[in-house]
């Protein structure tokens, strides 16, 4: 079983606890404001790796046509149980997006962190393919070195796979995919440093 499938099994078991813990999204207000300012009013955006879809709901509150996409069906179900049917979800793999050259924006918040580094270039190529010319990519990843399994969290001693990034490493990957980086910063939350990037196709 590979890293993604094993992590997916963990999320199937912690989905409800995760959704209950993550539903308050005020810490992303600056990120959302910048994203909303960059995409066209009422634009079509996809929340890639949306989990329970809380960010999808926030983007919809900003009058964007936002849809959630996640690999984990239990995570999508947990979001529906908490928020009802306000979000529209698709279950899919971010490495094989089911749409092409139509999105005004992709919101990819803490989603690459479970992909092995070897899979990241293919995912970025998919993001590029899915965006229309001039489309905006928002990306957040955990800062750090290497890849490793982490056990525990959300009340269960279960493993999840994490990949960590440095600024130059992520910037090189975006540039090689021919994205143009237009903004970015580092956020500190609790004991985690988050690397934030906005890029345009």
Secondary structure: elements and pairs:
Layout: H1 3-22, H2 29-38, E1 44-48, H3 54-61, E2 65-70, H4 73-83, E3 89-91, E4 103-109, H5 120-130, E5 131-142, E6 147-151, E7 159-163, H6 167-176, E8 180-189, E9 192-200
Parallel strand pairs: 1-2, 1-4, 2-3, 4-5
Antiparallel strand pairs: 5-9, 6-7, 8-9
Helix pairs in contact: 1-4
Can you characterise this structure?
The mean pLDDT is 93. The longest helix is centred in the N-terminal third of the chain and has 20 residues, at 3-22. With 201 residues, this protein is of the alpha/beta class. The strands form two sheets. A seven-stranded mixed sheet has the order 3-2-1-4-5-9-8, with helices on both faces. A two-stranded antiparallel sheet has the order 6-7. 35% of the residues lie in helices and 31% in strands. The protein is globular. It has helices at residues 3-22, 29-38, 54-61, 73-83, 120-130, 167-176, and strands at residues 44-48, 65-70, 89-91, 103-109, 131-142, 147-151, 159-163, 180-189, 192-200. Strand 6 and strand 7 form a beta hairpin. The protein has a single domain (3-117, 138-166, 186-200), classed as Vaccinia Virus protein VP39 (Rossmann fold, 3-Layer(aba) Sandwich).
């Amino acid at each position: 079983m590979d890293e993604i499938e094993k992590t997916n099994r963990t999320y199937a078991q912690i989905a409800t606890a995760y959704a209950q813990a993550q539903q308050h999204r005020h810490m992303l207000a600056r990120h959302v404001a910048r994203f909303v300012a960059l995409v066209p009013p009422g634009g079509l955006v996809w929340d890639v790796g949306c989990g329970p879809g809380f960010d999808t709901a926030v983007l919809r509150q900003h009058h964007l046509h936002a849809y959630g996409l996640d690999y984990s069906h239990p995570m999508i179900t947990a979001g529906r149980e908490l928020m009802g049917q306000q979000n529209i979800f698709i279950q899919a793999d971010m490495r094989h997006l089911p749409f092409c050259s139509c999105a005004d924006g992709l919101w990819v918040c803490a989603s690459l962190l479970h992909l092995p580094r070897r899979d990241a270039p293919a995912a970025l190529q998919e993001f590029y393919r899915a965006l229309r010319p001039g489309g905006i990519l928002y990306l957040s990843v955990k800062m750090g070195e290497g890849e490793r399994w982490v056990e525990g969290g959300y009340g269960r001693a279960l493993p999840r796979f994490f990949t960590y990034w440095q600024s130059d490493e992520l910037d090189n990957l975006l540039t090689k995919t021919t994205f143009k980086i237009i903004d970015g910063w580092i956020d500190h939350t609790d004991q985690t440093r988050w690397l934030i990037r906005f890029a345009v196709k």
